[in-house]
Amino acid sequence: MARLSSLLSFSLALLIFLHGSTAQQFPNECQLDQLNALEPSHVLKAEAGRIEVWDHHAPQLRCSGVSFVRYIIESKGLYLPSFFSTAKLSFVAKGEGLMGRVVPGCAETFQDSSVFQPGGGSPFGEGQGQGQQGQGQGHQGQGQGQQGQQGQQGQQSQGQGFRDMHQKVEHIRTGDTIATHPGVAQWFYNDGNQPLVIVSVLDLASHQNQLDRNPRPFYLAGNNPQGQVWIEGREQQPQKNILNGFTPEVLAKAFKIDVRTAQQLQNQQDNRGNIIRVQGPFSVIRPPLRSQRPQEEVNGLEETICSARCTDNLDDPSNADVYKPQLGYISTLNSYDLPILRFLRLSALRGSIRQNAMVLPQWNANANAVLYVTDGEAHVQAVVNDNGDRVFDGQVSQGQLLSIPQGFSVVKRATSEQFRWIEFKTNANAQINTLAGRTSVLRGLPLEVISNGYQISLEEARRVKFNTIETTLTHSSGPASYGGPRKADA
């Protein structure tokens, strides 16, 4: 009995300790009485562009459990491959280019035609197949010099009978939304004449992220001279690529190359940053440009992790979910459209509305949202929390970010000729509820409930319930008087 009592006491103490440590690590972060339109807090400059990072410690982003990054890649700029421990959903805000992903364990599916040359040439070069590679492995003790000579001979032979094979490369353009699994290495190249701008949300609170709630890029190449300045408590020092963690001798043996080449892989003397400028042509195996993405029927059987479609375009009004020529359009992207989102548990909404058009008051029923303005300006009226407090009431403009927690009601009204935004949501099938309109919560209530609840007449209740016939977009009824943030009465 004494042992049982001691065991119960220990279990209770352990439970209290774990609960306390969890509460300390992730306290109640959604007690928000004010929101702000956010600008980037850190800028990482590179040779051919820059990376702009928002402060993920900001209360509204901590509440949503996400971080936000903007990549600006200049013409002929190459964002070197990196991966995150979190799911990532990206949107091409401007420009065009190429994107490649390397999914662990998947084979190269893009192959140059020279691989299939007559005569049965091996993809590792004529006369240098797997057998000779194995022989080279058996004589590692002969020194790095012979190893380097074999590597040079292999390169010459490859140049004659083999050019390249790699995993899938895609063309990307304005409006594309890109889903990326944790641990999947990704690179971008700007082959256009204007900057390629990509914004990304990282789901730090996802079950797939087994680290802490900090955005942690792991670079396969290049370096970050400024370090991860956004992580509190970490001594700031240049962030090198992950190959720096190994000795050059180990890399030489692993890649079967000479030590000098292994040192080059570590980018130790390279100060170009994570976005470098490509000198000369950039030749990768890629399909021809698409004029319009074909509609694909997916039954979920033939789509594997290696072949999963990860890109969809949200800028085509013909595919919009809500479209009104005089007002604008809204398009959504969820796991029914892009099945990979089912695993990432993320979705997106693209909106474009004309001046004085309004998105009716609504809230996200099952997701947090992060709104990024790609063009124009709008007045976002009264994001309302669970106390009924107005926590935001003001303008948002191009390049700004606003976090909208789950359940917080919001209305948007365009104040420029055109207002366009992308909204990332932390649910694969995010749902909204509206306050006004044909499918709203008030439309679903009996007149008597509205009349008694608001102390208005039945005729007034009828107007409240039926006057707005739209579901999502409407004309604003004229200039409104907006006040500042309003607190609940004491």
UniProtKB/TrEMBL annotation:
First and last residue of the signal peptide: 1-23
Q: Which InterPro entries match?
A: 11S_seedstore_CS (IPR022379), 11S_seedstore_pln (IPR006044), Cupin_1 (IPR006045), RmlC-like_jellyroll (IPR014710), RmlC_Cupin_sf (IPR011051), Seed_Storage-Functional (IPR050253)
Record domain Cupin type-1: where? 35-263, 312-462
Query: What are the protein's UniProt keywords?
Result: Disulfide bond, Seed storage protein, Signal, Storage protein
| Domain of life of the source | Eukaryota
Query: For bias kind Low complexity, which ranges apply?
Result: 149-161
Q: Does the keyword Disulfide bond apply?
A: yes
Which residue ranges are recorded for the region named Disordered? Answer: 114-164
The answer to whether UniProt assigns keyword Disulfide bond to this entry is yes
Gly residues bias spans: 118-148
Q: How does it assemble?
A: Hexamer; each subunit is composed of an acidic and a basic chain derived from a single precursor and linked by a disulfide bond.
Q: Which PANTHER family match?
A: 12S SEED STORAGE PROTEIN CRA1, OS03G0336100 PROTEIN-RELATED
Q: Which family does it belong to?
A: Belongs to the 11S seed storage protein (globulins) family.
Q: What does this protein do?
A: This is a seed storage protein.
Q: What is this protein called?
A: 11S globulin
